Records
---
Amino acid sequence: MAEQDGSLALLLGASRGLGLGLAREYLRRGWRVIATLRDEAADAERPDGLAALGREAGGRLEIVRADINEPADVAALQARVSGRALDLLFVVAGISDGAAARIDTVSTERFGEIMLTNALSPLRAIEALAPAVRRPHGVIAAMSSGLGSVANNTTGGWEVYRASKAALDTLMRSFAARHEGDEVAILVVAPGWVRTDMGGPTAPLDIATSAHGMADMIALRQGGRGAVFVDYRNQEVSW
């Protein structure tokens, strides 16, 4: 994935936070980017949203309204990229109820919504869109979290979010096992603790630093095989 070569990235969930930061980073590197968002009207009102970024991108940013929880939206996106070679497919979208959300207090409906958005829908989207990823040097990635590591969970907290990201990690490993021998790198990504709406204002990393690190890591992981849980510094994370 050489820089400045017109490589193509599809970023699902790029209207704000890390998704928007990744869109900005890949455009800075000379890539073409397809970025999805759920609410075009809300984005258009933001001075730093995708629409504003698109005006600076010289035609290299394609903005698509899509909700990964809606099968029809995923199918439309699949049709849109048919016949195009993606160098990177990265599902970034995710939600959280925060550190205090607990299994004994979360409603069944909210638990299901978080699991749907953070685990089931990303894998359904990856299943649908993976055929468009370039072989042998393409990359399929899903945004997880260090909190999704079962081995490293010694402090508790973030119970619902942790559970959803651990589920995502397991499903990504299952996807890799079913696609053993496929010439594509499969990455489960921990972006670090970042100052986003989810990470909060006291997080040590800014969005630009995390996005730059993730893009560098993805370039280095190109050509790999199997599922790898890895952070923005290119350090592997315990499952």
---
Amino acid sequence: MSIKLNQTNLDLLSSSVKTPKYDRRKVGQGIVHIGVGGFHRAHQTVYTEDLFDQGQDLQWGFCGLGLLRHDARIRDVMLEQDCLYTLLERSIEGDKPRIVGSIVNFLFAPDNREAVIEKMASFETKIVSMTITEGGYYLSSSGEFDANHPDIRRDLEHPHEPACSFGFLLEALDRRRKRGQAPFTVMSCDNIQGNGAVARKMLLAFAELRDPVLANWMSQNCVFPNSMVDRIAPATTDEHRALVRERFNIEDGWPVMTEVFKQWVIEDHFLLGRPSWERTGAQMTTDVLPYEKMKLRLLNASHQALCYIAMLFGYEFAHESMEDPDIRKLVELMMDREVTPVLPEVPGVNLVEYKKTLIERFANPAIRDQLSRLGTYGSTGLPKFVFPSIEDQLRLDGPIELLSFTVACWFRYLSGKDDRGNEITMKDPMAPRLREMALAGGKDPAPLLGVREVFSEELAQSPRFVTHVREALARFYEQGARETLVQTISRTSR
């Protein structure tokens, strides 16, 4: 019979499972985190857990927050398990399990909104960190704050009873202001270039609409460090739960699967102190931008390049795509020829070795990273990961064929069926509209290029870019995905 994961049962677990050796009763709650998903529990909490294992900085434990109704499931699991969970690092060398205990509390706003606000407003809270995805920042298609979003309108009408993450942040900060307290540091850990700067811009715009006095106080006092985060953490499945139960005899309602690799580059700008994350491998810097560009344009853009073509071939997992020599060649050529030449120098990083590591990570069969996960946000991912390299190369009159091929491949994927006629599940938030336009356009990319939430007018009217996309899209429909890919890499390999 498997052992239910909780604090009492830790000593019953197999010696092969690493468990917390520090006294969790002494762990504080200096950090409040919004968005306790798989990535947060594979990344920020692990750097902190490693610190605790060194006997360092126990005051910097996490209190997780669930703000939305659908967070009820993670609430139930976390509370039932004393906020413990199994982290399984997976590689071809084998699986390494550990129990992570750096989250010591979890609050669920729909049950007690006031408790959540007061937790953020308390003296103990020094940092509020976030993994809320790009949609949580209320960015409009122009990159400005979407003041007309229903969440924002609702919280402006009920500022003291917030529902969205930004509403909670403002109410807690306003209480601290009125009490004469310093603000907490707002730390975005989302996959957005300049995530701290974006968080600052959006939150201040929201505050200005709510109360210009609050906005002015925040502008003068709040800090928003930028960061770059990287670790692959596929969504947890019932198969993963069964694996943890059968292999390690642990009954865990929400284990986390991840790779061995992890990276965290943080702008060292914190108002009320921070954990010594540099002791556990994080890189503290004054300029995150070069690292962000490297990661977004190499790793994330490559994910976009491989996932859509692989789904058209009928593959399910990322490692399958790397077993396909044509897709592997596509990714390698795109990184080398079209992305790397427009990247800035990255201090302390050998880009040749970094790209080699990316291929190895993508090819890791133990992770079983779902292609559907990688392709979930094409409408927001392509503009962040792929378009910047295209725009840079257009200014330099450099090569863009493989990057353009990736865009055409996405257009073909949006039609909803792979090359064998099987339905492709699309989770993009704009999926219904995009699929309708893809089917209406067929070989003609014009309808999709006209979607201004995705394509700027300048890019959509670039003759060279449009020609590459149109030619590749036509080949997809006339010759099929495999032949289109083979012809493209053959031309660009010369």
---
Amino acid sequence: MVRRRRLKSWSVGGVLALGVAAGGLLFGSPTLLNPRVVAPQGVVGVSSWMSYVWIIRTAHGAALVDAGHDPRGTAILEELRREGLSAKDVHHVLLTHGHVDHWAAASVFPNARVMVGAGDADIIRGEQQSESLGGRLSRRLEPEGKQPPRLEELEGEQVLDVDGEPIRFIPLPGHTRGSGAYLYRGVLFTGDSLNRWVLGAVDFASRFYTDDPKQNRESLRRLESVDFSATADGHQGVALDAKAKLERLLHP
């Protein structure tokens, strides 16, 4: 009887794991087709196991928006080398939220200040679970990154001084409690809260991975007062003329 229960448990776990993997392949397919993307303002996105990491060059190195799914950060390090930089030249890692596919390589960058919305710090530390089914399954079934030794929590909207570049943090709770976006020179990095979709349109976060879909939608209304021209998200890439597309999404 015990053996049957164990087999049943493993069967259920296997099915769930396959489901999550299939969903990831479908949701993350643009990262497979376009492993390197050039966004406005010279920002480069690289695919780290089906999650985009955005590299912002600054006067004295680089900042990252998210740190990908690969705990070794292989694609990030390759792109940095391509630009004449190393892991030590990354001075900021700005996390859009606490799902592991967005922060797994954060500890690879020894000099970086790692920042995240306050509501998600406990998720990264493993002290709290995501509320969404997809978020909980991902944490249980997917490769785990090494937790960053220093994690700074961002409380409320604020402008960060990132090597002399003003980057605005905008809280967008809903996908997770601490989800947020970062605005840099008209490019809005949205993580999973707002995604490029079919024919370059934009769409809401995936409900399967979202703690509170209704709150996510309401949070996006804050962006109507934000001046941006493009979005760069965590899995689908770059959407141009994104402000107008968001308005059409919110007011069909």
---
Amino acid sequence: MPSSAFSKFETNMLVDVDRVIESHADLNHEGQGRRGLGHITRGGVLLLCASWELYLEEVLLECSEVFLDRLDSPAQLPIPVQKQLAKSVRDSKHELQPLKLAGDGWKTIYRSVVAQQCGVLNTPKSNNLDPLFKRLIGIEKISQSWSVGEECVNGFVSARGDIAHRGRDAGYVTINSLHGYRELIVRSVTESDNELASYMRQSTPQDRMVWRRRTL
């Protein structure tokens, strides 16, 4: 099995995107020309990007729970994560916050930091994702796992933003473009999940897979 985040993406979130694609086919009659179905394809882009964003948030939470389950001390966390926890304690306005690191208190702080930072992710491009993944789980440039290249993923997210802010003025999205975006995101989710499976295995003392890699 892949990660729980991947399974949810595949069996839940992606299903809605596929239903949008099926609806377009049902409404599109034979012949040349547009059918006034741009609202459907634009909606598909919005749903697909929401699915991508939710996968990323949930896989980060899942990875952090692996650390919480497998590690006994914050000193075992990757250095970037240790620095992020230390920063959150230093920046706290509560003067007794450092005491919360005692015992298993670091786990509560770590869980809170991950949830808070995942909760404010709203533009899932590489320039936001790479530093976020590094801060929260220590991995360097998750975007390097995307064989399509970060430019393609970033372009898709920009297209989503254009639709969200301009509506139909953003331009017509063809069904072929939506199919292409779907393939792009499914591949990027799969490759991210595979990369994280290997990384998390290497980053914990037990040295065992947290989930299975998925063949493309």
